[in-house]
Every structure is written in structure tokens, then in C-alpha cells.
């Protein structure tokens, strides 16, 4: 929590440079309360992956769910929260593409320990200080250019990388995406079943531990390469299946030469990161699909429906490409669009409302399932959840008018 203070400051500065309408009669003493807050969610303090509504209890430990304000920020994949941006771009430290992470926002008074989920005023009259902290499960980004998954136990996380040397390597992490200690790796057993796209033949390999990772030499095979791993984390634990599709060899995120030079050079000017970014060749394997960048929710129903359709198709194309860890981005955007449509349901006839209301709640539920299964990386579960998602999305499309039609009262 200590380090979060300076990060929060950077965040506050980043927000303050957002273009704001020129104040004409602004009172200088007024506190800057124009910042838009992310909505409150309710989660278990002990099991941050357990979400619900206010008044719910955690199904695991029965604690009351507590309010949290979660936000999604863009930051460096391997240096969480070193830089915080509100849009896609390049990491000014190593030149790699920025990734999204989930953070928790809290507010405290100077010298106080009590954290609040909303801004406010301290007893001395000063505004509470904002903190930004990485959340458990907030960073599901690969650290070695591979494919990243979470085990169904919500604790173990792993990344599979297919190196150009023909080696398949598996890295293990905790829920904050910190590398697993070697000692904790001794009981992990894994195999990988590799499908040859030309012959259709499967070959099974046992992974061998090498330091903190497991690996097997599976050879250079035609791409895209499909395989599934079976992993047990404890000697008598059950198998966890992870489906990998590698469209290309995995590449370590490289460090920009400019970043190492700045150590000796005087403090970089504000334009230095931009200059460094242009020196780095675009790397498609690390690039952020611009279509995945969140858009503001449109005002009209037909525009919302069009975006919902686009997001529904994006989820499908990510599933086809095997990019399961990114599914949550368009799935959650579709969920937000569906909830925005829910606010327009009073414009519907009663018959249409009977279709729309359950369809919206089905879409919201299947978006959460897609998020959870996307993390876990089991293709069958993901496809099943996607079928429900598509059906709900279609029902929503059919219930709402596609063009601006006035509904007679
Ligand atoms: Zn709990
Ligand atoms: Zn996680």
C-alpha cells in the first residue's frame, strides 16, 4: 500500500490533464470533484474473486461482501502500476504494448488507516487521498509472451510459451502474477498433448522441471499449433486442463535500448517516451487490438445494439483464435452495453420487455462466465458459455427496435 501513494499521484495528474471545458465562473476554492468514479462492486475481503450484491455473503468463508471500487487501467505488462494510463499505448520503460489490469481504488486520510471506497473529506477538512492498488486476479497478462491462464482453484496461474527453439515452457504464478517460488513447484506435475495439424496425430509429453518452470522439447511444428496441458498442483490433486493455441512462436517482451540508456543519461524529457516508442518496431504479437479498446456507451438504442453486435462477434473471434485471456474485454463491454439497454426497457411494449429483461440478465451472467472460463482456459466451457452469450445477445437484438421508432404510450 505504501508504493501506491506515488502511483495514485501519477494517476491524479494523468486525470487532471484531461481536457475539461474552460472554467468561466469557477470558484477557485471549489475542490476538483469532476472525476468520474467507477461503480461500486461487492466482493469478499478474503476471496477477491467472489463477487455479489450488497448484503450477500461469500460462499466460501461466509464473510459479508464489502464494497470495492474497481477500475481498469493501462500499464506495463511486467511492471504493474509503474505507469498508469487511461488508454492503450506503449510502456515508456521497456517499449512493450501497455496491457489492462484491474485495480482497486481506496481513499484514506493522512495518518489514518481506515480505507474508504469513496472519496470524502477528512476531519481536518482536507480531501481524502486516493490510492490505486493492484488487485488479486487484476493482472492476467503473460509475462513471457505466452498464453496466460488461471486454474479453477482461483489460486494457481500459469503461462505456456512455445519458443522458436521448439521448447514448450510453463511458468507458474500466484494470484498477483508474482512468479511461484521453486519450493512450491516440486509437487506440480504436467503433461502436454500436442496435435499435429498435418497428420492430426496427438503426441503426449511429460514436462520436466528446470528451475522455476516446467518444459518439454516438442519440436518445431507447423503453426498455428494446438495443444492441451493437464496439470496437477498437489500430489493427490485433480487434473486441470488448459487449451493452448499458438498462432506464432512466443517471444519474450523485449527491453527497448533507449530505456537502458536513460539510466546513465540525465532525467528524460517528457517527450522521451514518445521518441523511444517510435524507434521500436511494431510487434504484432504484443500489439493491442485497437478494436478491444473500450468505447464510451452510445446514447441511442440503435447505436448500443450495433456495438453489442460487434462485441459479441469479437468474443467469438477471440475464441476461434484461442486468445482466451482477452475474452473478458469485449464480454464485459457487451455486459455494460446490455445494462445500458436495460435503462431503455421502459420504452418497450410489455411483450418485448418480457423478452428483453431475461435476455439482459442472461447476457450479464454469461459475460461473467466467459470471464471466469477465459481465465481458466478450458475451450469446452468457454464455447458453452459463448453459446448462451450469443443466444442472449440475439434475443436482446430482437427485443429492441433497430431504428429509432417512437413507442406509443
Ligand atoms: Zn470469502
Ligand atoms: Zn487470477
Q: Gap between N and C termini, in Å? A: 54 Å
Q: Which H/E pattern describes the elements?
A: HEEEEEEEEEEEEEEHHHHHH
Alpha carbon gyration radius: 23 Å
For the biggest sheet, the summary is:
5 strands, antiparallel
Number of helices: 7
Average predicted confidence as pLDDT: 80
Small molecules in complex: zinc ion
Helix-residue proportion: 25-40%
Write up what this structure looks like.
With 409 residues, the protein is α+β, with helices and mostly antiparallel strands. The protein folds into 3 domains: 1-18 and 27-136 and 256-277, no CATH class; 147-246, Immunoglobulin-like; 290-399, Four Helix Bundle (Hemerythrin (Met), subunit A). It has 7 helices and 14 strands. A 5-stranded antiparallel sheet has the order 2-1-3-4-5, with helices on one face. Helix 4 (301-321) runs antiparallel to helix 7 and helix 6 (350-376) packs antiparallel against helix 7 (379-399). It starts with a helix and ends in a 10-residue tail after the last helix. Bound molecules: zinc ion (ZN) (2 copies). The site of one zinc ion (ZN) has 8 residues, from loops.
Question: What is the topology?
Answer:
Blueprint: H1 4-16, E1 40-43, E2 51-52, E3 66-75, E4 99-108, E5 129-134, E6 147-150, E7 157-162, E8 167-173, E9 189-195, E10 202-206, E11 208-210, E12 213-217, E13 225-232, E14 240-246, H2 257-261, H3 272-279, H4 301-321, H5 328-342, H6 350-376, H7 379-399
Antiparallel strand pairs: 1-2, 1-3, 3-4, 4-5, 6-7, 7-8, 8-12, 9-10, 9-13, 11-12, 13-14
Helix pairs in contact: 4-5, 4-7, 5-6, 6-7
Bound molecules: zinc ion (2 copies).
One zinc ion (ZN) binds next to loops.
Amino acid at each position: 500500500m505504501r508504493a501506491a501513494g506515488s502511483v495514485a499521484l501519477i494517476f491524479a495528474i494523468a486525470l487532471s490533464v484531461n481536457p475539461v471545458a474552460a472554467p468561466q465562473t469557477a470558484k477557485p476554492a471549489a475542490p476538483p470533484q469532476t472525476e468520474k468514479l467507477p461503480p461500486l462492486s461487492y466482493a469478499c475481503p478474503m476471496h477477491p474473486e467472489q463477487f455479489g450484491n450488497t448484503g450477500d455473503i461469500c460462499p466460501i468463508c461466509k464473510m459479508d461482501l464489502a464494497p470495492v471500487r474497481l477500475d481498469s487501467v493501462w500499464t506495463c505488462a511486467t511492471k504493474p502500476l509503474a505507469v498508469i494510463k487511461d488508454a492503450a499505448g506503449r510502456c515508456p520503460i521497456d517499449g512493450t504494448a501497455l496491457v489492462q489490469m484491474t485495480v482497486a481504488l481506496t481513499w484514506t486520510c493522512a495518518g489514518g488507516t481506515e480505507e474508504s471506497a469513496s472519496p470524502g473529506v477528512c476531519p481536518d477538512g482536507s480531501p481524502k487521498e486516493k490510492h490505486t492498488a493492484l488487485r488479486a486476479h487484476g493482472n492476467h497478462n503473460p509475462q513471457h509472451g505466452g498464453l496466460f491462464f488461471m486454474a479453477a482453484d482461483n489460486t494457481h496461474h500459469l503461462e505456456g510459451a512455445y519458443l522458436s527453439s521448439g521448447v514448450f515452457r510453463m511458468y507458474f504464478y500466484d494470484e498477483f502474477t508474482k512468479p511461484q517460488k521453486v519450493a512450491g513447484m516440486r509437487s506440480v506435475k504436467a503433461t502436454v498433448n500436442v496435435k499435429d495439424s498435418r497428420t492430426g496425430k496427438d503426441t503426449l509429453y511429460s514436462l520436466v522441471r528446470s528451475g522455476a518452470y516446467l518444459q518439454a522439447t516438442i519440436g518445431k511444428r507447423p503453426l498455428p499449433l494446438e495443444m492441451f496441458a493437464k496439470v496437477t498442483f498437489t500430489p493427490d490433486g485433480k487434473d486441470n486442463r488448459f487449451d493452448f493455441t499458438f498462432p506464432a512462436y512466443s517471444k519474450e517482451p523485449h527491453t527497448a535500448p533507449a530505456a537502458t540508456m536513460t539510466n546513465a543519461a540525465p532525467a528524460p524529457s517528457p517527450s522521451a517516451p514518445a521518441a523511444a516508442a517510435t524507434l521500436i518496431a511494431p510487434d504484432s504479437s504484443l500489439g493491442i487490438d485497437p478494436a478491444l479498446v473500450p468505447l464510451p456507451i452510445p446514447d441511442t438504442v440503435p447505436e448500443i445494439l450495433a456495438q453489442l453486435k460487434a462485441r459479441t462477434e469479437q468474443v467469438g473471434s477471440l475464441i476461434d483464435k484461442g486468445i482466451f485471456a482477452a475474452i473478458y474485454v469485449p464480454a464485459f463491454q457487451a455486459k455494460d452495453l446490455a445494462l445500458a439497454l436495460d435503462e431503455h426497457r421502459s420504452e418497450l411494449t410489455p411483450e418485448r420487455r418480457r423478452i428483453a429483461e431475461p435476455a439482459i440478465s442472461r447476457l450479464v451472467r454469461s459475460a461473467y462466465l466467459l470471464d471466469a472460463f477465459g481465465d481458466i482456459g478450458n475451450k469446452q466451457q468457454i464455447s458453452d458459455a459463448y453459446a448462451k452469450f450469443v443466444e442472449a445477445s440475439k434475443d436482446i437484438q430482437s427485443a429492441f427496435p433497430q431504428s429509432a421508432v417512437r413507442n406509443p404510450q
